[in-house]
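Researcher: Quick test of sequence recovery. Tokens follow.
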């Protein structure tokens, strides 16, 4: 896979028309973070994109199949796969970047009594745009990160490309 070089300011912008191929992965030199270019869908009960909120794969009514380049913060319209953290406000149907790898600070509190070093998932999330802890032995939980400092909402992301 080709990873393009990105300017820090470009990652924090959005547009109404696609500027890159959906699914393009980019990095900012020396940051240790990877970003993915996506399309934002606010969902059936519109949830606006907020920088720092978590997004999930868009799959209407929670169907397991879905788009991995179209994301939503509306947990009910997700397939339960954590895709990354929004880098900017993106209009419904607009395009922008999510962070998929590396250290990030979330806008929302981690749900379900997080502990530093604990794995994180999008399964069982109650609040749209949030992420949750993985219960010990929870079947079907896809780990998409680890809490670094749960009280400060600092995580290490490891989301799919």
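Model:
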């Amino acid at each position: 896979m080709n990873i393009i070089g990105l300017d820090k300011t470009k990652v924090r912008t959005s547009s109404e028309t696609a500027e890159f191929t959906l699914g393009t992965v980019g990095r900012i030199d020396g940051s240790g973070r990877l970003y993915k270019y996506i399309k934002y869908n606010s969902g059936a009960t519109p949830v606006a994109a907020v920088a720092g909120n978590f997004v999930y794969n868009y799959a209407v009514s929670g169907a397991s199949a879905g788009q991995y380049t179209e994301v939503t913060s509306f947990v009910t319209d997700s397939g339960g796969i954590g895709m990354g953290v929004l880098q900017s406000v993106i209009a419904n149907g607009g395009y922008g970047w999510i962070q998929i790898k590396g250290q990030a600070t979330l806008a929302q509190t981690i749900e379900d009594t997080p502990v530093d070093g604990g794995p994180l998932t999008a399964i069982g999330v109650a609040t749209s745009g949030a992420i949750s802890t993985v219960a010990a032995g929870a079947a079907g939980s896809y780990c998409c990160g680890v809490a670094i400092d749960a009280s400060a909402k600092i995580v290490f992301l490891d989301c799919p490309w």
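The mean pLDDT is 88.
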